[in-house]
Amino acid sequence: MKDLHLGDRMVPAIGLGTWHMGDSAATRSTEIKAIQAGIDAGANVIDTAEMYGNGRSEKLVGEAIANINRDHLFLIDKVLPSNASADRMEHRLDTSLKLLGTDYVDLYLYHWRGAVPLSETVETLQLMQKKGKIKRWGVSNFDLPDMKELLDLPGGDQVAANEDLYNLGSRGIEYSLLPWQRQQGIPLIAYTPVAAGDERGQLINHSAVKEVAEVHHATPWQILLAWAIRDGSTLAIPQSGDPKHAVDNVKAGLITLSDDDLAKLDTQFPKPTSKQPLDIR
């Protein structure tokens, strides 16, 4: 299983995303089992956010991990821009912690930029860290200018990760942002790592992806995940409400793509040759 550093913690390179989970009573039990199955298979990172179902995802995660050793887990949560201020962040964080059933999160992300000055958000994140309510902090949906601005702020260089959309069909960040993050030693958290909607179908049904999958006796989903984490500094957080699929996702961390595999995929899904707008969903 591939691992990477998030701050001072080593974690598996495949985690569990929870976007769109917790919204339906009909699927709740199966979704909880999916999270637990993923943990049993070797994942210990769970990614959620206050925005996901207005706290319903956090509550689902809390139920799923209630009987699991907290020290084994690495919980990622996110604060909305409207709550990323000095007078609102702690209250919202306390609400998230209550829903999760824990007294701290391992990584707290500023979900995307809003009206609150970035310096104020960073100062408040650092305060939450000092209080022990978060172990580390980071950002999400930041492009290169945002990251450079962040690192120019006092304490900004303590950012533990940046979470952006990244998959084989959306490689725009490879042009400038991802190389810069590698130089700075800032890990990437890849959300939507197997794409979404119609785009997902286009990827998993593409002949090149299927051919590489056959070589590795793997599923197309697993190849897309193995591709996303290939650089050793990326955490992928696929979402699945199906226990078997969640286990298969985690097992993708065992796959190492060869140079020939990567060349075949690059031919069909080439690297960007110019700056692209940041892909946000």
From TrEMBL:
Pfam family, one: Aldo_ket_red
Record: residues binding substrate: 111
Molecular function GO labels: 2,5-didehydrogluconate reductase activity
Broad class of enzyme this protein falls into: oxidoreductase
Keywords: Oxidoreductase
NADP-dependent oxidoreductase domain sequence ranges: 13-266
The keyword Oxidoreductase appears for this protein: yes
Residue(s) at site: Lowers pKa of active site Tyr: 78
Documented EC number(s): 1.1.1.274
Keyword Iron on entry: no
Residues forming the catalytic site: 52 (proton donor)
UniProt cross-references to PANTHER family, sorted A to Z: ALDEHYDE REDUCTASE (PTHR43638:SF3), OXIDOREDUCTASE, ALDO/KETO REDUCTASE FAMILY PROTEIN (PTHR43638)
Protein name as annotated: Oxidoreductase, aldo/keto reductase family protein
